[in-house]
Amino acid sequence: MKNIIKSSLAFVIYFSLFADYGLGIYHSFKKHGVSDGLIGAVLFPWAMYRGVEYWWHDDYRNVNWDKRLTNDLQTCVYFISLVNDKKADKYQMNEDLEKFSEKIKDYPADKRKYLIVGTKTCIQLNNSFNSDLLVSLNDYKKNGNFNLITSDATKKLETDLSNFELEDDLGSIKKSTVELNKLIQENVTYEDINEMETAMKLTLEHQQKEFSRIYKSLFDEEL
Length: 223
Prior knowledge:
The structure is a single chain. The protein is mainly α. 80% of the residues lie in helices and 0% in strands. The chain has helices spanning 2-32, 34-42, 44-53, 65-81, 90-104, 109-143, 152-162, 167-187, 190-219. Helix 5 (90-104) packs across helix 9 (190-219). The longest helix is centred in the middle third of the chain and has 35 residues, at 109-143. The radius of gyration is 27 Å and the shape is elongated.
């Protein structure tokens, strides 16, 4: 009986050592680079250390999250903005989306939530702006005077977006709004309105599908 117990304990110990060694080499290559992995493969104690270190390893220990999240959210907004860029290279965009989504997929839950909320707010603001434009075009058909409306919903979303340190992006949106208002006032006739409405509705349908696709690619969840 004692021999069986000793054999069982020996097996457990050897198996644990072997498992820790394998885990250490895997962890060395994956989290610390090729050089560290090669050292672990040659030096048994180093691989054993890395195997233990696996359980407390923190990928984000030295990350400046304020800077990282600001840059990452700008990247998310950039992907969203490409929906309206007819010259955008779809293949390259999808490649970049895949790489970026891989980078952020293991972020702590609160950091991912920051990016998710910021991206959703940007999409919602774009949708609200387009809704305002359609209302404004409809008003033009009624009274013959075009003035781009900014709804309370849009104003609130602008305020919400300003909390994400996206002042430049928000400034560009406001500038585009002013330019569009002026362009329509100076160049669009009553006869153009119906065509604009029809074209916009078709464009927005496609746009919403692309927003949903990009959001799904970024965060692996439905918009």
